[in-house]
Design brief:
There is one protein chain. The chain has about 425 residues and is of the alpha/beta class. The protein has two domains: about 250 residues, 3-Layer(aba) Sandwich (Rossmann fold), CATH 3.40.50.2000; about 160 residues, Glycogen Phosphorylase B (Rossmann fold). It has a seven-stranded parallel beta sheet, with helices on both faces. It has a six-stranded parallel beta sheet with strand order 10-9-8-11-12-13, sandwiched between helices. Helix 3 runs parallel beside helix 7, helix 4 crosses helix 5 and helix 10 crosses helix 14. The relative contact order is 0.11.
Length: about 425
């Protein structure tokens, strides 16, 4: 039995997959602790792990970042960089202090960190112990074959494309200078050489990267590190839970079911829920709308009669009945839909969501609306097209088969146990794209 510490950023989209990792490790007989904000304490304990709270790290609620980080809240690329600086990087020193205190109480054998957990990466470097990072979204591993991570652009083709990507990498380096400064200051604050690790390297374990997803969704690249492993995805929970009141009867109607979700972060219902409900209210479909905010079971506008609304819904019960998912592009929800072979309509606004939308479109499994605030007519036309053209369902079904080829829990535990045993980078065999 090993003692494992898991470090997660306190956002639902980050915590849920890390808790699946915790459950898998606990089921395999390992002792697990999870360092995350107090909002998730009960969920940590339900996963069979011990909660290690954020204390020196500023505890916050993802639904109101500005209460703790007044600099945040702006949209656009600069707003994303500001969020990364203050929420993800500058909290790193506090995370390290919390984790060092936990280490002094009981050292761990292995640390598993959310791919954006600055504290997890820094404390592992400081202690000199191996660690694994979990990619809870599209891969952010930089590549000479691709534009900078996070941009919703197709891979470069030919000399002009390569010149484009070189220019974009230079522009990103200039735009992210405050982020790089913040990282250097954070590293110095916890006793590490400020420039020893670059921004691009900081969140990527040199020992093992568990990429939640499949290679078929990612752009092929020639320089993917050998310790990056695609492991599929954990099944969505809730298969044995009840649907919200009134939902079971509504979903039994003999017509397509369209699930509409604003995700769990950036949950303004005016962005996607309102135009989607306006568009679908006059169609012969059942709309299953989720607000993404616990306690918000109603919308600030009247839903159409063919819609049901709830704060959250057990995906294990909903997705097997769903024909199309309309989403803001959160990675967890997109992967869950594709795991079930469901085509998508994606309205990605910021963070990695435009990239996710572009990935879905390139795969053939859905439509990228190219905005986070689509007009109702665009949502309606996209849903009509996805329902009418079988190619979208065929592409989604093909991706579902690739997900089904993975036993994610067993693969994750097996790879982590290899790292525990060998204390060296865990190399994969072969190329993920079969070249």
């Amino acid at each position: 039995m090993a003692d494992v510490m898991i470090a997660a950023m306190p956002f639902t989209g980050h915590v849920v997959p890390l808790l699946h990792v915790a459950e898998a490790l606990a089921a395999a007989g390992h002792r697990v602790r999870v360092h995350v904000g107090s909002h998730f304490a009960d969920r940590v304990r339900a996963a069979g792990a011990e909660h290690v709270p954020w204390q020196r790290a500023p505890d916050f609620d993802e639904r109101d970042l500005r209460a703790v980080f007044p600099q945040t809240g702006r949209g656009g690329p600069l707003g994303v960089l500001t969020n990364l600086e203050h929420v993800f990087v500058r909290t790193g020193a506090g995370q390290v202090h919390d984790l060092l205190a936990a280490w002094q109480r009981r050292p761990w054998d292995l640390l598993v960190a959310d791919g954006f957990s600055t504290g997890g990466a820094l404390v592992s470097e400081r202690l000199g112990v191996p660690w694994a990072s979990v990619s809870t979204g599209p891969l952010t591993v930089p590549s000479r074959d691709l534009p900078p991570p996070g941009l919703p652009l197709a891979p470069a083709r030919g000399p002009l494309g390569r010149a484009r990507d070189t220019a974009l990498r230079g522009a990103f380096a200039a735009l992210s200078r405050p982020l790089r400064t913040a990282l250097r200051e954070t590293r110095a604050a916890v006793g590490l050489e400020p420039g020893a690790v670059t921004l691009e390297q900081q969140w990527i374990s040199p020992h093992l990267v568990l990429a939640l997803g499949i290679a078929e969704l990612e752009a092929p690249r020639s320089d993917l590190p050998a310790h990056v492993h695609f492991v599929g995805s954990f099944p969505p929970g809730g298969a044995d839970e009840d649907l919200p009141p009134g939902w079971a009867r509504a979903l039994e109607a003999p017509r397509p079911v369209v699930h509409v979700t604003q995700g769990t972060f950036g949950t303004d219902p005016q962005q996607l829920l309102r135009p989607a409900l306006e568009a679908l209210g006059g169609r012969d479909v059942t709309v299953a709308a989720v607000t993404g905010v616990i306690g918000r079971d109603a919308l600030p506008f009247d839903p159409p009669p063919n819609a049901v609304v709830a704060a959250r819904v057990p995906y294990g019960r909903l997705l097997p009945r769903t024909d199309v998912v309309v989403t803001n592009g959160g990675w967890g929800g997109v992967v869950a839909a594709l795991r079930h072979g469901i085509p998508l309509v994606v309205a990605g606004a910021d963070l990695d969501k435009p990239l996710v939308a572009a990935m879905v479109a390139r795969s053939g499994a859905g439509i990228d609306l190219r905005t986070g605030r689509p007009p109702a007519r665009a949502v309606g036309a996209a849903v009509d097209r996805v329902l009418a053209e079988p190619s979208y369902r065929r592409a989604a079904t093909g991706l579902a088969a690739r997900f089904a080829a993975h036993d994610t829990a067993a693969e994750v535990v097996g790879l982590l146990e290899r790292l525990l045993r060998d204390r060296a980078p865990v190399r994969r065999a072969g190329d993920p794209w079969g070249r």
